[in-house]
């Protein structure tokens, strides 16, 4: 077995590259920028409006928000709310905060919309294949182990009920394992955006791993630009440049987070229908929607679908989608007309 993915902390930044970081433009002094580690990855927040208290206050507030989210939805923290839910009994609904309920509801909705391609109960399979908090497998899981794990998967075994001012999260089998890892970064981008807007900041670019939220302009008065990184070995190579114009952009990919076992490559994205990591030629999917949470749910589902089904789904739902597909020794990009509206190739 040869783990060859980069550190989890680097993954997100490798999917999308904020152009402000590429050295293309010198950093203007009016810009406020903080970065740090969260959720096993990185976050970067750049503002061209002042933040009350400056960078130290911004960093403190953002990190307090992220710490609270980790305490709610991190399966890597055995004491988090989600871990307590996963360890708890069946048919004993647990009260959860509104912010966490929003993420679970998005997971359930996207699960229905995508015919189960996104499944927030896929955790037993993620862990079996060695991509969760558990260790990597020393050998490929056998059919029996995959089948056993699949018995524990399915959003029909999960319930979310609104009760007055709170929400109740329940499960019908004791060993259901809720895994919101695929949605956490998008949710965090949205929550940071809400924090900023609550402080009167209307010009910002936020990235938490591959999930970006943007609004307004950069400190030069121009729209923010984000690069979609090409999945090649060339450092800094990017496939296209996007100006999200107040929207959210999220990218999922199979080419950074994987390992090799007995000469075969295993990606961290699992097809719930087979219980196995995806094997097709779609290497990255980017989606633009109003919220990063929605985009983060859809990009993973598209990755499960594979190139043809993902493009058909995007067209049927009129989504702004950009796919990178392995083609021979290189890569081919294809995108919907809705995504073309955000491409910023020729613009300076
Ligand atoms: P995405 O494509 O956004 O999501 C892929 C992930 O979703 C997979 O890794 C798997 O977990 C899950 N998944 C796979 N297939 C499906 C499917 N069909 N449907 C639904 N979900 C699927 N990682 C660490 O290494 N250490 C940490 O301490 C850590 N803490 C975290 C705390 C929080 C609150 C969250 C949300 C995540 C944390 N992670 C941690 C996980 C990590 O940051 C990423 O979420 C994970 O590596 C995948 O994110 P991605 O953007 O690379 O891929």
Automatic annotation (TrEMBL):
**How far does the signal peptide extend, from start to end residue?**
1-20
> What cofactor is needed?
Mg(2+)
Name of a matching Pfam family: ApbE
Write the record's keywords in alphabetical order, separated by commas.
FAD, Flavoprotein, Magnesium, Metal-binding, Signal, Transferase
UniProt GO MF annotations: transferase activity
Q: What is its EC number?
A: 2.7.1.180
Q: What is this enzyme's catalytic activity, as reactions?
A: L-threonyl-[protein] + FAD = FMN-L-threonyl-[protein] + AMP + H(+)
Q: What sort of enzyme, by top EC class, is this?
A: transferase
Q: Which SUPFAM superfamilies match?
A: ApbE-like
PANTHER family, sorted? FAD:PROTEIN FMN TRANSFERASE, THIAMINE BIOSYNTHESIS LIPOPROTEIN APBE
Family assignment from sequence similarity: Belongs to the ApbE family.
Recorded protein name is: FAD:protein FMN transferase
What organism does the record attribute this protein to? Aeromonas enteropelogenes
């Amino acid at each position: 077995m040869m783990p060859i993915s980069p550190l989890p902390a680097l993954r997100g930044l490798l999917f999308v590259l904020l152009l402000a970081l590429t050295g293309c433009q010198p950093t203007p002094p009016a810009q406020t920028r903080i970065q740090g580690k969260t959720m096993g990855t990185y976050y970067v927040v750049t503002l061209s409006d002042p933040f009350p208290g400056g960078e130290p206050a911004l960093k403190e507030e953002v990190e307090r928000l992220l710490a609270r989210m980790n305490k709610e939805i991190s399966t890597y923290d055995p004491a988090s709310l989600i871990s307590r839910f996963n360890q708890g009994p069946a048919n004993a609904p647990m009260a959860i905060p509104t912010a966490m309920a929003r993420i679970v509801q998005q997971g359930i909705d996207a699960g229905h919309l995508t015919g189960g391609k996104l499944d927030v109960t896929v955790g037993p399979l993620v862990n079996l294949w060695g991509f969760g908090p558990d260790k990597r497998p020393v050998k490929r899981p056998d059919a029996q182990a995959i089948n056993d794990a699949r018995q524990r998967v399915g959003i029909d075994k999960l319930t979310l009920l609104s009760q007055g001012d709170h929400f109740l999260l329940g499960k019908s089998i004791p060993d259901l394992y809720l895994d919101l890892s695929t949605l956490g970064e998008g949710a965090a981008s949205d929550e940071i955006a809400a924090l900023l807007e609550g402080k009167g900041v209307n010009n910002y670019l936020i990235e938490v791993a591959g999930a970006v939220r943007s609004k307004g302009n950069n400190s030069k008065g121009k729209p923010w630009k984000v690069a979609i990184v090409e999945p090649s070995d060339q450092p800094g190579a990017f496939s296209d440049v996007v100006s999200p114009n107040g929207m959210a952009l999220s990218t999922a990919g199979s080419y950074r987070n994987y390992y090799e076992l007995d000469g075969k490559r295993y990606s961290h994205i699992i097809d719930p229908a087979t219980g196995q990591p995806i094997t097709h030629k779609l290497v990255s999917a980017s989606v633009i929607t109003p919220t990063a949470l929605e985009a983060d749910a859809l990009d993973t589902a598209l990755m499960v679908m594979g190139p043809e089904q993902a493009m058909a789904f995007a067209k049927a739902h009129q989504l702004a989608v950009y796919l990178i597909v392995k083609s021979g020794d290189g890569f081919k990009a294809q995108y919907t007309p809705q995504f073309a509206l955000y491409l910023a190739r020729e613009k300076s």
